[in-house]
Amino acid sequence: MKADIGLIGLAVMGENLVLNMESKGFTVAVFNRSTDKVTKFAEGRGKGKKIIPAYSIQELISNLKRPRKVMLMVKAGQPVDDNLEMIIPLLEPGDIIIEGGNSHFPDTIRRTKYVESKGLLYIGTGVSGGEEGALLGPSLMPGGSKAAWPFVKDIFNAISARASDGASCCAWIGDNGAGHFVKMSHNGIEYGDMQLICEAYHLLREVGGFDHEEMADIFTEWNKSELDSYLIEITSEILKFKDDDGSAIVTKILDKAGQKGTGKWTVIGALDLGVPLSLIAESVFARTISSMKSERVNASKRFRGPAAGKTGIDNKTLVDDIRKALYASKIVSYAQGFSLLKNAADEYGWDLNYGEIAMIWRGGCIIRSAFLNKIFEAYKKNPELANLVMDDYFSSILTENSESWRRVIAAAVSQGIPVPAMSSALAWFDSYRTEWLPANLLQAQRDYFGAHTYERIDEPAGQFFHTNWTGRGGDTVSTTYNA
Fold first, then answer.
1. CA atoms in the 13 A half-sphere facing the CB of 148
2. What string of DSSP letters covers 179-228?
3. Is cis: bond before 138, omega within 30 of 0?
4. Do 53 and 28 form a contact (C-beta atoms < 8 A)?
5. Beta 51-53 vs 28-31: how paired, if at all?
6. In the sheet that 51-53 helps form, which strands lie side by side, from edge to edge?
7. Cα(77)–Cα(79) distance, integer angstroms
8. Helix crossing, 315-348 with 262-273: angle to 10°?
9. How far apart (Å, rounded) are the C-alpha atoms in residues 40 and 46?
10. CA distance to 140, 190, 205, 344, 417, per residue, from 271 (Å)
11. Beta bridge partners of 142
């Protein structure tokens, strides 16, 4: 018996993907660098299943049907390259290597080119959904050598999550690093969603004075609204969960957030592409400042915040205002995220289907929500949409929720409660909807100290001018460019 696919790396995600594939009728060969894990898995969770244990890479590959498909579920970075060097000499032209870790997309671009130069095919696939998703159905975002797709499509579609309408949460994304770029962007949006929910929690707790049971009920109600999503659902469950002493266990958790780097990559990618990804950037920085716990404790002793006072908003209105502010901010986050995808597609020559991307995020992944259907509808109606906020549905919500959004942020500022994601979302929206911004003064400053030139409103676009502001300068100007 030969295996349909081989998998290297039996950590949590690898094990669960193997069990998922096997449950869908596929035979899977498995290998792990620490071979005791192979034995443990084969005699434990994999016992009695269509799983072939291998104790060397050579044995793994010898047990695969042609064209051979080898999936790497190892730590991103050098371990991927190390495994490629061991695998490539053992494969034949047309064989396929799949890498399912959280690799940085430039690495996937490089690896696709390298593997193809050896006559092989390469797929870098984003896998979202965590441990449970890997076992029961993740959202899959494959990209790379398109010629490989027909050979893995059945496996990927079989193991992927299903949306509420039964559609597979998997689609071919595009060439080389497209799949990992979309997964990276998904994770950046996830950072934004989580930070916005945390800010809503902070406001409910500090401004509204709600206890954790009451807040759990509020999030439960919100999950029946336009905010219906996995993250809102689990927030309600977290807030209800009791420790042994009967108190909410969340109150015992240190307020010091961790991160694995994909949010940072998303922000760096946005800076490289010139996309104002301000909400996601603030979400990354919020995690960073939370990690400065000892400094914050010392600062809290030195700086007194505003005296707690009445906001002039009754609690029923406050809850509704926070819901509207959360939804408006979420729209901005996704608008920024999809703008990043659009700019990346232009830069790297990817033919991305934005509506389809929204659809495959509806199940399995962490940001799954009913809201994604609205994004699909927006791009179905206008595939060339410049920005999500210009869609009729989203623009109407931002207009309708604007007053509540501003009221919530004003209340937060007056009470000294940080809401970096919500406030940056509003700042972006106000900038985006403003015909005139003070960048004319900024350009004058740049020209004054660096002769960087400027364009004039009374001259054709693309012509650049310099003023001798001090009378001591000359006519030599700096090169005009955008970094």
1. 33
2. HHHHHHHHHHHHHHHHHHHHHHHHHHHHTS---HHHHHHHHHHHTTTTT-
3. no
4. no
5. parallel
6. 51-53, 28-31, 5-8, 69-72, 96-99, 121-128, 139-144, 174-175
7. 6
8. 60
9. 9
10. 26, 18, 34, 11, 28
11. 125
Q: What's the one-letter identity of residue 269?
A: G
What amino acid occupies position 247?
S
Q: Which alpha helices (DSSP H) does 57-211 contain, by range?
A: 57-62, 78-87, 105-117, 130-136, 149-159, 178-206
Per-residue pLDDT tens listing for the chain (483 residues): 899 999 999 999 999 999 999 999 999 999 999 999 999 999 999 999 999 999 999 999 999 999 999 999 999 999 999 999 999 999 999 999 999 998 999 999 999 999 999 999 999 999 998 889 999 999 999 999 999 999 999 999 999 999 888 999 999 999 999 999 999 999 999 999 999 999 999 999 999 999 999 999 999 999 999 999 999 999 999 999 999 999 999 999 999 998 878 899 999 999 999 999 999 999 999 999 999 999 999 999 999 888 776 677 889 999 999 999 999 999 999 999 999 999 999 999 999 999 999 999 998 888 989 899 999 999 999 999 999 999 999 999 999 999 999 999 999 999 999 999 999 999 999 999 999 999 999 999 999 999 999 999 999 999 999 999 988 877 777 766 565
| Gap between the Cα atoms of 34 and 39, Å rounded | 10
Q: How far is CA 186 from CA 366, 372, 442, 474, in A?
A: 9, 12, 34, 49
Tell me, what DSSP letter sits at residue 98?
E
C-alpha separations of 379 from 107, 343, 373 in Å:
29, 16, 10
Residue whose pair of structure tokens reads 């495994």 in the numeric block: 83
Give CA–CA dist 382/151, Å, rounded.
32
Residues comprising the chain, all counted: 483
pTM (predicted TM-score): 0.93
DSSP string, 403-470: HHHHHHHHHHHHHT---HHHHHHHHHHHHHT-S--THHHHHHHHHHHH---B--TTS-TT--B---SS
Those residues whose C-beta lies under 8 Å from the C-beta of residue 461, and which sit 6 or more positions away, are 455
Q: Which neighbouring-strand residues pair with 97?
A: 70, 122
Q: Which residues contact 407 (CB under 8 A, 6 or more apart)?
A: 313, 321, 325
Q: What distance in Å separates the CA atoms of residue 345 and residue 368, rounded to the nearest whole number?
A: 23
Question: What residues contact 185, with CB distance under 8 A and at least 6 apart?
Answer: 266, 269, 337, 340, 341, 344
Residue 86 CA: distances (Å) to CA of 36, 72, 198, 271, 335: 20, 12, 44, 36, 42
Report the amino acid identity of residue 225: S
Active-site residue list: 183, 190
